[in-house]
Design brief:
mainly beta
Length: about 900
């Protein structure tokens, strides 16, 4: 066994430079800049922001300028993020883009401006006016400490460079009224002044370990030269040093060429085969620049912590090893120092890399019990067996952390041996996913499909929260999204709009960035609104999160229904009767219903579903159109709307026979979502016929009042009903003239040897008396309706059965209000010697009856006399023949 080493060494893992920071930097850094910010003097409103395009490029849809103010200053944008889309187009080099904030949504001073590309990566950042907002760039190339108005800084409040038409406005503003020149993008266009080299402080002189060195190209002012694409050559102060492009594997390199994606910053790796203090040099011979690093102390012995690239939030890591490691001997090289045994009191602490300030104050836990401090302080026992100690870590949050170990008990306190140190390297702690919670006052809104019991009116606010979280649902407040995207889809034809956290998201399945909306690991809005009918599916994913991705996570939200119905009279309808131009008071039709109706053109009620904002909800169709005919209540007319009875005071009464109408989907101007309720064409109505209804003719006025339109939403719970709002309309179909009528039969007499003809006459009350109803071409009669009554005349020569009805056997219709030629009722001759009288009574509808003798309403009656002569000449009186 190898003896305890005399010198032990700290092992540092890979620097974080190429990971999270590089991923958050856009390749367009240095190509587009925030150029000018106009501020008016009077109200401190910023109406315009001007961008400068340094290199020709295509800006795709999704580029955004995010502006956020300090929440402690209500005079600015109030801390709420204001987002302005950058118009998608191809821009030539040296062009300018003007973003219009003239609606007053942006107040200054005290705002930070962050320009991001279509993938949510940082392009440029500007802190305007000195106030700090929650908005910070995740790309370190963008120096967040620079504030305008300072010497040598960007003069972003000067005359517009690309929009001369605004010069007058600009000079009247509070900005500097002097040309400031185009503000070049950060770190672009400068000469290469040198390199900043950032190596690991210590490393192991073992072939299977490598030290990292960060290399940053510099401008004269010390900022990153983000457009640097030169070739550098690598060397060291000691022979035996080899360089590599990767932390492990790959061939040794002697040079490296920067690419645009580096944006002036790269991380390389090197190894030295012996104990030595090694400095690294980087040279760009074309630029004549040579820079050296501080030394890295390569040692033969140290500790090495097992790498853990990523860890799930709140979950314990698998067992990891902390190993005493170094040179065993010259022949066998490096390995585990198995003689390092027993319980060791180590200082163990955690560092917070992203976010560096650990705003949630979440703590890393080791071995499920001990909570690690954020500074080198407390000691924790680890038991080493054969040079190895096992441990696990957990972190109830998200971000990037590092755990450091230090063993400095005597004799490792520096004399005679150096302290033993190690760290895990950066660990990306990744949320288990996203939690999506939608709710309203009634509770959860997570329902799916047209029969979901969870419901929300379209356009009314509800609460929607999206949070990064552990597997148990605990929020991870330190989560800072890189490319959080929300996809909103719906199961109905028309994509609605989801108003959420100041953004308007279209439910058409497109991916829409919500990166800028998160605060403390979540985004929540109690004023979320959805404009349409249907069920939503929300899907959230952050595909760019270090160690991720986070998600995707999905949730169904719904169902959304109309907030209210608006009612319109689409068709008033037209009343009709069997007599076309008029109807008799009291006239009945088929099935003993009133003869007055609308069989051809029934009234039509149009039902318009609307959101709380008053917009048509086009998706109220198919299974989501849950209104039924039972939910439409239309009251029948009980009296005429204008006509008064004979008493001059009371309205004429109406008897209605109405059945359920029909409900059908409708489109108006190509838009769906409407429903049409049409009254039943089989409905019938009649005016009550009595003495008070004997009035002059009038045109009917029937009014059908809509009492209610209610969508019970399929569950009968009143709290979810959709009701018609506003004045409920009245359906008033075009009227028909109403006449109080009667049918009169004329008396007839003649020889007992000839048949008698009995003419019919339809009459109506014209206000002063009865007149011929020439409009009647609809009253039907036949012989079968007539009855011959001989009872009142029992002392003559006629006996029952001596005579009978002859004609008409078929139904016959009056013409011009009278029986036509040959259309009168025909009664058979009784025969010679059978003189006498008989009454003919015609069974007619009640609307043609009349109180002929003061004894009440009766069918019309005629007296027939057979064998009647005129005077004493025994000449029979010949019948008058109608029409001759």
């Amino acid at each position: 066994m190898v003896a305890k080493p005399a010198v032990l060494l700290v092992l540092f893992c890979v620097l974080i430079l190429p990971g999270r920071l590089m991923a958050a930097c856009s390749p367009y850094v240095g190509k587009v800049a925030i150029n000018e910010v106009l501020t008016t003097q009077a109200d401190r409103v910023t109406p315009f922001v001007e961008l400068f395009v340094a290199e020709a490029l295509e800006i795709k849809s999704g580029w955004r300028l995010i502006v956020q103010g300090n929440t402690s200053r209500p005079g600015n944008s109030g801390g709420a993020a204001v987002v302005k889309e950058v118009p998608a187009a191809t821009y030539p080099a040296g062009s300018y883009i003007l973003l219009d904030f003239s609606g007053g949504e942006l107040k200054t001073p005290g705002n930070d401006l962050l320009l991001s590309d279509d993938e949510g990566r940082d392009v440029d950042f500007l802190r305007f006016g000195g106030d700090e907002s929650p908005l910070t760039p995740s790309c370190d190339h963008l120096d967040s400490s620079r504030v305008p108005y300072q010497p040598g800084d960007r003069q972003v409040c000067s005359l517009p460079d690309g929009h001369p038409e605004l010069v007058d406005d600009w000079e009247a503003a509070s900005c500097v009224p002097s040309p400031g020149g185009s503000n070049q993008p950060v770190g672009a266009g400068c000469e290469l002044a040198g390199f900043e080299l950032m190596p690991d402080v210590t490393a192991l002189a073992c072939p299977d370990t490598r030290a990292a060195v960060g290399i940053r190209a510099l401008c004269d002012d010390g900022s990153t030269k983000t457009d640097y694409q030169g070739r550098i050559f690598l060397a060291s102060s000691e022979n035996g040093t080899r360089f590599f492009a990767e932390a492990s594997g790959g061939d040794a390199i002697a040079e490296y060429a920067f690419v645009p994606e580096d944006a002036g910053l790269a991380t390389l790796y090197f190894y030295h085969d012996d104990e030595a203090l090694v400095s690294v040099s980087v040279e760009d011979p074309d630029a004549g620049v040579l820079s050296w690093s501080e030394g890295t102390d390569f040692r033969a012995f140290g500790l090495r912590a097992e790498a853990l690239p990523s860890l799930a939030s709140c979950e314990a890591s698998p067992s990891l090893a902390l190993v005493a490691y170094g040179r065993l001997d010259q022949a066998s090289g490096c390995g585990v120092l198995e003689g390092f045994e027993g319980g060791k009191e180590l200082k163990i602490w955690s560092e917070y890399v992203l976010p560096a300030t650990n705003p949630s104050e979440s703590r890393v836990t080791i071995n499920g019990a001990a909570t690690l401090p954020a500074v080198e302080s407390s000691r924790y026992r680890l038991d080493f067996v054969n040079g190895r100690a096992l441990f696990n870590l957990s972190y109830p949050d998200a971000g990037r952390i590092r755990v450091r170990f230090k063993h400095d008990d005597s004799p490792y306190a520096g004399d005679p041996y150096a302290a033993m140190e190690a760290d895990t390297g950066p660990i990306d702690v990744v949320p288990a996913g996203f939690g999506i919670v939608a709710s309203n006052a009634a509770g959860s809104l997570h329902g799916e499909g047209p029969r979901a019991g969870t419901m929300q009116p379209a356009g009314l606010p509800f609460t929607l929260q999206i949070q990064a979280q552990c597997g148990d649902g605990t929020r991870t407040p330190n989560y800072q999204p890189v490319s959080a995207e929300l996809r909103v889809t719906q199961d109905q034809p028309r994509p609605g709009q989801l108003a959420f956290a100041g953004e308007t998201l279209v439910a058409d399945g497109r991916v829409q960035s919500i990166t800028a909306l998160f605060k403390e690991g979540a985004v929540s809005d109690a004023n979320t609104r959805y404009s349409e009918v249907g069920s939503l599916t929300l899907s959230v994913e952050d595909s760019g999160f270090p160690g991720g991705p986070v998600g995707p996570a999905g949730a169904a939200v719904g169902r959304f229904h109309p907030h209210y119905f608006e009612l319109e009279v689409a068709e008033a309808g037209v009343l009709e009767s069997p007599c076309d131009s008029f109807v008799y008071s009291g006239q009945l039709g088929a099935e003993s219903k009133g003869a007055l109706g609308y069989p051809t053109t029934p009234p039509l009620l149009r039902i318009v579903p609307r959101s709380a904002e008053g917009e048509l909800t086009v998706n109220y169709q198919g299974e989501y159109a849950t209104l039924t005919v039972d939910g439409v209540v239309v009251a029948p007319p009980l009296v005429d709307g204008a006509a008064l009875g004979a008493d001059g005071a009371s309205a004429l009464a109406i008897t209605a026979s109405m059945a359920q109408g029909s409900l059908t989907p409708a489109e108006v101007d190509g838009e769906a979502g409407y429903l049409d309720y049409r009254l039943n064409p089989a409905d019938g109505f009649y005016y009550v016929r009595d003495a008070n209804s004997r009035v002059a003719p009038f045109v009917s006025q029937l009014a059908f009042s809509v009492q209610e339109v209610r969508d019970f939403n399929g569950d009968g719970v009143n709290g979810n009903d959709v009701l018609a709002q506003g004045p409920l309309p009245t359906l008033a179909p075009a009227g028909v003239e109403v006449r109080f009528g009667r049918l009169r039969l004329a008396n007839a007499f003649g020889p007992e040897t000839e048949a008698l003809s009995v003419p019919l006459t339809a009459e109506y009350f014209d206000g002063s008396g009865f007149a011929l109803n020439r409009l009647d071409g609809c009253t039907v009669y036949r012989a079968g309706q007539a009855e011959l009554d001989h009872a009142p005349y029992g002392d003559d020569n006629l006996t029952p059965g001596d005579t009978e009805m002859l004609a008409p056997q078929a139904e016959t219709t009056l013409q011009g209000g009278v029986s036509a030629v040959g259309g009168a009722l025909q009664v058979a001759a009784p025969g010679e010697g059978r003189e006498g009288q008989v009454d003919l009574i015609l069974d007619v509808g009640a609307w043609l009856e009349f109180d002929w003798d003061g004894s009440g309403q009766r069918d019309p009656k005629a007296q027939l006399t057979f064998g009647r002569y005129r005077g004493h000449d025994r000449v029979i009186l010949w019948q008058e023949r109608l029409g001759q």
